[in-house]
Design brief:
The complex is a heterodimer of chains A (115) and B (114).
Chain A lengths: L2 E3 L4 E5 L4 E3 L2 E3 L5 E7 L6 E6 L5 E3 L5 E5 L4 E6 L8 E8 L9 E2 L3 E6 L1
Parallel strand pairs in A: 2-12
Antiparallel strand pairs in A: 1-4, 3-9, 5-6, 5-10, 7-8, 8-9, 10-11, 10-12
Chain B lengths: L4 E3 L2 E4 L5 E6 L6 E7 L6 E7 L2 E5 L7 E4 L6 E5 L8 E8 L8 E2 L3 E5 L1
Parallel strand pairs in B: 2-11
Antiparallel strand pairs in B: 1-3, 3-8, 4-5, 4-9, 5-6, 7-8, 9-10, 9-11
The chains are: A mainly beta (115), B mainly beta (114).
């Protein structure tokens, strides 16, 4: 069955420090992979996506993610975290089976940023 | 275009009552999705439309749930005979079919069943 695992429920980093959020997936075919961010009171916002090609993808707000097929991972990184990055981050995979567009989300990682 | 809008933002209802939520997608988007999110979980897919056609419903979706998109624009999600387990955030998203997975989400409707 298709699934997404985000092993870290909550991460705290200092402002200016680097960040890596982990995501592992289980999928029967070449996946489409996404990272979304959800700030309090805001809708989910797409940070970046991977469909094919270069395995290192750049997104908005200075985020990047690397697809590693051998590890079934799609980890999100940022070299220097800002206080405004505090939010919940969701990894997602899709589409699957015969459907065209619905996503399977992980449970999310909540990021806190220390001043 | 101001993005995906959902109404109401909050709804408190008594168990057994029916509730209806509305979603207005981004105007040029032909796909519309409904998700449900409970505390500590990621969004869970419920159903989606392409234009006015409902193309898929989650197997987890109870028969008490029904969704419509009558003219291929806005959509409504109705829950009949609400139960406490229906308490959740209901999220709507829209996208272009040519850009699969690149969904734009609304802020959601938080339902509390008491």
């Amino acid at each position: 069955a298709q699934s997404v695992t985000q092993p870290d429920i909550h991460i705290t980093v200092s402002e200016g420090a680097s960040l890596e959020l982990r995501c592992n997936y289980s999928y029967g075919a070449t996946p489409y992979l996404f990272w979304y961010v959800q700030s309090p009171g805001q809708g989910l916002q797409l940070l970046l996506k991977y469909f094919s090609g270069d395995t290192l993808v750049q997104g908005i707000k200075g985020f990047e993610a690397e697809f590693k097929r051998s590890q079934s991972s799609f980890n999100l990184r940022k070299p220097s975290v800002h206080w405004s990055d505090a939010a919940e981050y969701f990894c997602a995979v899709g589409p699957y089976g015969g459907s065209q567009g619905n996503l399977i989300f992980g449970k999310g990682t909540k990021l806190s940023v220390k001043p | 275009d101001t993005g995906v809008s959902q109404d109401p933002r909050h709804k408190i209802t008594k168990r057994g009552q029916n509730v209806t939520f509305r979603c207005d997608p981004i105007s040029e988007h032909n796909r519309l999705y409904w998700y449900r999110q409970t505390l500590g979980q990621g969004p869970e897919f419920l159903t989606y439309f392409q234009n006015e056609a409902q193309l898929e419903k989650s197997r987890l979706l109870s028969d008490r749930f029904s969704a419509e998109r009558p003219k291929g624009s806005f959509s409504t999600l109705e829950i009949q005979r609400t139960e406490q387990g229906d308490s959740a955030m209901y999220l709507c998203a829209s996208s272009l079919s040519s850009r699969l997975g690149e969904a734009f989400f609304g802020q959601g409707t938080r339902l509390t069943v008491v």
